[in-house]
Each structure stands twice: as C-alpha cells, then as structure tokens.
Design goal:
Blueprint: E1 8-9, H1 11-19, H2 21-29, E2 39-40, H3 42-64, H4 79-89, E3 98-109, E4 112-124, E5 128-135, H5 150-162, E6 175-181, E7 184-192, H6 195-214, E8 245-246, H7 256-259
Helix pairs in contact: 1-2, 1-5, 3-4, 5-6
C-alpha cells in the first residue's frame, strides 16, 4: 500500500506508527472507522474528551481576550470548572508577553510535509520561544516520559524549522516546551531544547517518514506490546481482545486521550500558513 504523495505527517500519526504500524495503516491510510470505544466506562471517557476540548476552547478565547477571567461561563462544580479555576490561579509561570494561540506551522520533510498545530507559543523576540501545551489527563505522566513522545519531538523541531516568521534567527537553545496539567497546575513539565536534540529529532523524524513511505506490504505489522491494544479501538479487528481497558487503570503509556483525537490535517489549506523553502 503506497503512501499518498500529499500525505501530511503530524505528531498523532507518527505516534500511532511508533506505537503500532498496523494502527497507523488502519487509521491514517485506510481511514477505517471501527465501532469500538477506546476506554471504559464509555460515557465517562466521552465526558473526559468533551471537557478537554471545552477547556482548550476556553483558554484559547481567554488568551485572545474574547472572555475575561471573571466571566461567569461555567457551572461551579465539575472537572471543567476545576480546570478553569486552576488555570486562572496557576497558569504557566514566566511566559513572554507575546502570546500566539492556535498557531499552525509546516515544513517539508523527506519529500512529504510535517505539520503541527500548537496550543500556544509565547515569544520574547531575540531571546526565547516557549511552546505551551494544555493537558487535561487524569494522571500526570511520570517524569521523562513526555520527552520521548512524538508531540514533544515534532513541536520543538518544527518550531525551529518553520518558526522564522515568528522569530527570525530562532535557535534550538532558545526553545522550551511546557506541558501544563489542569489536574496538577503547580507541577508543569518543562523541556528545554538544544542543537544536539534538534539534530537527533531531525534524523529520527526523517527516518520514520522514509520508512513509512517505503512500506509496500498489504498489511502492516502489529505491535509486539499487546498492552497498547487495550486502549486501541481496532483491538477486536486485530484479534487482540474485545473489551476496552478501564479508564481508571490507564497509565501514561496508554495515552488514552490521544486515541480519539481527530486528524485535523484532513483537508487542510496550506494557503493559510506561511511556506518555507529549503
């Protein structure tokens, strides 16, 4: 099965490939919708996803100045209200004043395109650029786990590659990524960057794209780590069980909220973002 020439790589589909090549093929090449939930209880999981989406919208509107902190827009109880109060009381500290929410960047990579949509980029011209990502997962990942995720590697690498319009001359050492956890607002994870990591990320991402583009077998292989299948909607199709994993038992390796994330790059209009040439 050949990769379409206009296929867009992003952190979600690259993470799917790293976790399980077959999942990548089913979800992003065959675009197969499979009637299964990612986690149980299904209603609780769906509510968690919806609350997370609502929180991202609220923060986006607040950063843009559309809503004020005191705007009475939420019920007084529930996770979303708790997250909102946590955000107002303990936002990421020491951010530059120039805040750019929902920024999309793109760059060519190994004959295809790499694209990312950032929750927030905060810039202090000529000094630093900070990526902020809002996380509403129930548990905080163990230290160091996020540094190896495709989101971290793609976001920091792509900001250096494609962020010159936002920050001319941006260098890797001027970039930092902050994961801010709504359930742990005082325990953000801060991940600085440097030239060595930038080069390593470039090699890894290029190798992954080349490997994926070069696959020609009709069925991509399944992951050897069957624990990943418990929170995958394709588990029954692949003969890896019919029961979803328990949401309360999901650890950071399951990355349950990402399982249901839509592929927002579908139908994306590249005229909306600046082109860079190499």
């Amino acid at each position: 099965m050949s990769l379409p020439a206009d296929f867009l790589f992003n952190q979600a589909n690259l993470q799917d490939y790293v976790d399980c090549p077959r999942r990548f093929q089913l979800r992003h090449l065959l675009q197969l919708a499979w009637p299964a939930v990612a986690a149980e209880p299904a209603d609780e999981y769906e509510a968690q996803v919806q609350d997370g989406e609502a929180f991202h919208r609220l923060v986006h509107q607040h950063v843009l100045g559309i809503i004020a902190a005191e705007t009475p827009i939420l019920p007084e109880a529930g996770p979303l209200a708790d997250w909102w109060r946590a955000y107002l009381a303990s936002p990421p500290a020491d951010l530059p004043a120039m805040l750019l929410p929902e920024v999309t960047l793109s760059a060519p990579l190994a004959g295809y395109r790499l694209i990312a949509k950032y929750d927030l980029i905060a810039i202090e011209p000529d000094r630093r650029a900070i990526i902020v990502d809002w996380k509403t997962s129930a548990r905080r990942p163990r230290p160091g786990w996020l540094s190896e995720r495709m989101q971290t590697r793609v976001y920091r690498y792509l900001l250096v590659r494609a962020g010159t319009d936002l920050f001319p001359g941006l260098q890797p050492a001027q970039v930092e990524m902050i994961y801010w956890f709504a359930n742990y607002p005082d325990q953000p994870e801060r991940l600085p960057y440097d030239a060595t990591q930038f080069e390593a990320d470039g090699r890894l991402l290029t190798e992954l794209v080349v490997e994926i583009a070069g696959r020609n077998e009709p069925i991509f292989p399944l992951t050897d780590d069957v624990t990943r299948c418990r929170f995958c909607t394709y588990r029954s199709l692949c003969g890896r069980g019919i029961t979803a994993g328990d949401l309360d038992e999901a650890d950071d390796q399951a990355a349950v909220p990402e399982e249901a994330a839509p592929d927002w790059t579908a139908g994306f209009d590249f005229e909306q973002i600046g082109e860079i040439v190499f």
